[in-house]
Amino acid sequence: xxxxxxxxxxxxxxxxxxxxxxxxxxxxxxxxAAQPPRPDAPRVGLYDSVSAVLLRRWPDIxxxxxxxxxxVEVHRARADSARTFGDEVAAVQxxxxxxxxxxxxxxxxxxxxxxxxxxxxxxxPMFGLQLTAWHGRSYATxxxxxxxxxxxxxxxxxxxxxxxxxxxxxxxILDYSTDDAYLDDVHDPPVHPLxxxxxxxxxxxxxxxxxxxxxxxxxxMAYSAWEATQASVDVIESDxxxxxxxxxxxxxxxxxxGWLADRFDREWSTVDALVLDLRGRGGDGGxxxxxxxxxxxxxxxxxxxxxxxxLQDRQTRSAKEVLVELLRRQNLARVVGEPTAGxxxxxxxxxxxxxxxxLMPAEINGPRYERLELHPQQPDVAVAWGGPxxxxxxPILRAGLQEAGRMVRAQRRGVVLPAPxxxxxxxxxxxx
Length: 432
Fold this sequence. Notes:
Layout: H1 46-57, H2 61-80, H3 85-96, E1 105-108, H4 109-120, E2 124-126, E3 130-134, E4 137-141, H5 148-151, E5 159-163, E6 191-192, E7 201-209, E8 212-219, E9 221-223, H6 225-232, E10 234-238, E11 241-247, H7 256-265, E12 273-277, H8 287-293, E13 308-312, H9 319-329, E14 334-337, E15 346-353, E16 356-363, H10 367-372, E17 381-382, H11 395-413
């Protein structure tokens, strides 16, 4: 990895419509910075750097004075006794876990860059998956549609036993997680990017089912979450009902609403219903009203008049939570899945030196913050995610397709929809 990166050393503030890391403020393509010191390396003053940023930049002055500042002092003794970089990281994480806010966490410059590039829809060398830590094990998640991992046969919730012959937590390509410190790991599990370059390949030992283990080689390729979103577009047909589908991997910093309008004019011109998959991270909150206009009967931009189902899970956050709330408030969609993350503050970042970055709130006020921050939104139809070793089983998607079909049939009969279903078993995805 190169040692240069064009990232500001001050806090990047995201104002107004953006509800995630503002990737547009970065200059792409970026050259990725050197990785942080090893955990057993000498301490570097990380706690002092983090506390200085918090005490100078926390956006709510009262909270900074009466919550953040006392917590900084409470945890300072642990930081002062740290002898290694790993000890310092642990002290910082202990502090951040006590501050009641989303979009707050310690990560690396490279992990921040990976997330920023994803939000911008920028094509970069990647393996097309991330690793989620769940109950002491590592699982493939965020397996991008059409990406290198999917092409190699990796599916969401395959267990990753080894990376190039070592356990995932010991692998040098496992980057820092990008999850929120305050949210518990059940509702916001740690998600780790994998470091890669254009010439990389990685050998994964994969558990597909309880009694099936295989080795898979995944070669890095230039790809993006935006390409994965385009690759996810589908039309599912069953019993005379046509359902359009798209997984909006992020609320990208580009004209997603215009692209969706084209889909309604082309691939989805004859569909009866739409399933809008909003599982995963957020992005640009300004997209929410523009996307809603495409299905709102009061909008000049309306492209679709059939039933809409939105999918959400525990990792649906930020701008996607804004969109989910808007769709529900305007009665534009039925929501299927799990409660959301409850993470909607505007966010920014501060580079700390030594290859580390602090993700932190940039704005924490306004009516949306009061309604949604740390208050997960409940679905209309409750369905749990597939979880470990579920592979192609995707109960949330399956339930969403069933709900869309039910809504179409009810609409055709001219009847009022009954109360939503509340349970679905694990069944194969993309088949109503």
